[in-house]
Amino acid sequence: MVVVLMLAVASFLASGCTETESQAQPAHDGPPERGGTVFYGMYQQPPVINTKLVQGGMAAASVMVDPLMDAPIRANPDGTWYPVLIEGVPTLENGMVDVGEERMEFTFRFREEAAWSDGMPVVCADFSFTWETHMDDRWMIRSREGWDLIEEIQCIDEKTTRVVLREHYAPFLSTLLGGYVLPRHELEGKDFNKYWNAQMTVTNGPFRFKRWQRNVMLELERDPNYWNRGEQEQPFLDGITFVFLKDVNSMKVQLRTGEIDIIAPPADSSLAEELSTYPRADFMSEAGSFWEHFAFNHRNPPLDDVDVRTALLYAIDRRQITDAVMRRQVEPLQSTQLPAVERYYEPAWERFQPDADKVAEHMTAAGFERQGQWWTKDGKRVSLLMKTTAGNPLRMKVSQVLQQQLRAQGFDMRIQMETAEVFFGQTTGQGTYDIGVWAWGSGVDPSQKLLFTCDQIPTKSNEFRGNNKYGYCNEEVDRLFDQADAELDDTRRAELTREIQRLMADDAVLMPVFQQPETIAYSHSVYGIEQNVVGGLFWRIGQWYTVVAR
After folding, report:
1. Angle made by CA atoms 433, 435, 437, in degrees to the nearest 5
2. Cβ(259)–Cβ(39) under 8 Å?
3. Which of 324, 422, 407 is nearest to 372 (CA)?
């Protein structure tokens, strides 16, 4: 699952071609060819494609919407921002950001030619409507973070927008300008909880929505009137079709046989070795921005006790997981921030190494005693339910190793695999698990307020909105998050971010496991792909082309 927080990571390219059966993609001379459809295999299907809703929080939904919607700004592979819908990126240096003693404001202008797929211009009123939609209590909005700080939006003219915030807000670029804008003329008066769930009727990206056959495919087609098509009349492709397959193995089989053209398989111990044998496909892999972790549900006893959670941290051997399961592709991760961004990174979980004595110390402090194989309390043994996504071989392997490790330390743990739709749409938010295995994506900005503050806990009263799936609440951590998000001095903000990590490790919120390698495998017939783990695979989708039109 993804939170739209993508962290700037150091890109290192692991070549996807070896000297086994695989051959490098043949060079293509001449200009890009026009036409053809690229078939993209996916093993997860979101319940809705409206990524602004709670149900649309899956990474799969963001992937499918990305070619449909341009954002005001996007991220380069190095984590810097570049303008797309707007004329420039607001900064203090260029005068587009003005900071007062408490309030701040920023101004931007939509590009004159920026337009929706129905020909209507993208204007200030659309951005204002996006704010209004985020703040409307009728709608099941996934997060109002940042939008709730807006005091006023002034439309200086049709294209020029001034946003006034009631307080300093450091993540304003990623939160307010890094996502897509909503078309007022199309959505005003519609039921936003339903209208865009199965279709996006008006878009402003290089492709437009065609149809969604649930459990089969979702089809996008080239927008012939795309506002940013340029002299080369991009995009070159006629369309993109997302094909929904039952599991990761099906994706790989169909790439090998040529039935689909591109896949983004999850990390696995033998993935690179396997992909290198595909005779008509190549692959690339970079250090990804998603971090795999063991989530602890603080709402369920006995994990509501910090001593029990801490005992689990000392019972887990992450080195065994990265060595045996990941075959040393990655190192154990010691933080919820990624080490590539050194100024924000604090290896706060490094102290949690396997230690049976520490396990016993903390379980005893929590009132448990070891009877035979198991830790017990009031005659009942500790029994934990671990849930994760089905169809992911790596997570199954990791879960089985975790099960063995915990049983060796006296914890009984059952494994239950669920479809991604159920796991992310219901289980994590409603807290029907003890330990969960999933990944978050971190972004250009280090803020993780959406994941860990008290007001982000999903509850029945807030209709299970919020990304704090752990049920974690520490008022001091909340205060530091607020302070960090209001701090425009990056050095001081980095200090606050590192302090937050230390406190969260003390609270045993979760266990970071490893940084996922991000792999893209693609047919030799598809050209123009450039990986960008920060800005998304489709950041330059307009230049993709296929040499065999389908």
Report:
1. 105
2. yes
3. 407
Count Cβ atoms within 10 A of the Cβ of residue 230 and give its class: 0-12 exposed, 13-18 middle, 19 or more buried. exposed
pLDDT at position 29, please? 80
DSSP state of 434: S
In angstroms, the CA 152 to CA 132 distance is 11
Residues of CATH 3.10.105.10 domain(s) within the chain?
Answer: 288-517
Read off φ and ψ for residue 110, nearest 5 degrees.
-65, 140
In the chain, where does the domain assigned CATH 3.90.76.10 lie?
A: 69-199
State how far the Cα of 260 lies from the Cα of 40, in Å rounded to an integer: 6
**Angstrom distance (rounded) from CA 382 to CA 386:** 13
d(CA 227, CA 520): 28
CA atoms within 13 A on the CB side of 308: 25
- The strand pair at 104-109 and 160-165 is best described as antiparallel
Residue 1 pLDDT greater than 70, yes or no: no
User: Binning pLDDT at 50, 70 and 90, where does residue 6 land?
Assistant: very low
Q: What is the DSSP letter of 120?
A: P
Query: Is residue 23 predicted with pLDDT exceeding 60?
Result: no
Query: Coil, helix or strand for 69?
Result: coil
pLDDT of residue 285: 86
pTM reported for the whole predicted model: 0.75
Residues in contact with 489: Cβ distance below 8 Å, sequence separation at least 6, in sequence order: none
Positive or negative torsion for Cα 278, 281, 284, 290:
negative
Q: How far apart are CA 521 and CA 529, in angstroms?
A: 10
Strand 412-418 relative to strand 281-296, pairing: unpaired
Integer Cα distance of 441 and 5 in angstroms: 6
Instruction: Let me know: does 457 contact 138? Beta carbons within 8 Å.
Output: no
CATH of domain 288-517: 3.10.105.10
Percent of the chain with pLDDT over 70: 95
CA-based nearest residue to 538, from 516, 515, 520, 517: 520
Q: Please answer whether residues 368 and 396 qualify as being in contact, where contact means their C-beta atoms are separated by less than 8 angstroms.
A: no
Please report, for residues 68, 73, 451, 491, 497, the alpha-carbon distance to residue 1 in angstroms, rounded to integers and kept in the order given.
Answer: 20, 22, 12, 30, 23
Q: d(Cα 322, Cα 318) in Å, to the nearest integer?
A: 6
- Going by C-alpha positions, the residue among 171, 142, 34, 136 that lies closest to residue 493 is 171
Torsion on CA atoms 246, 468, 533, 96, rounded to nearest 10: 140
Encoded tokens for 69: 């919607």
pLDDT score, position 518: 87
Architecture field, domain 69-199: Alpha-Beta Complex (3.90)
Task: Cite the beta strand spans of 404-542 per DSSP E.
Answer: 412-418, 435-441, 510-523, 526-527
Question: Which pLDDT tens digit goes with each residue over 135-153?
Answer: 999 999 998 989 999 999 9
pLDDT, residue 426, reads: 93
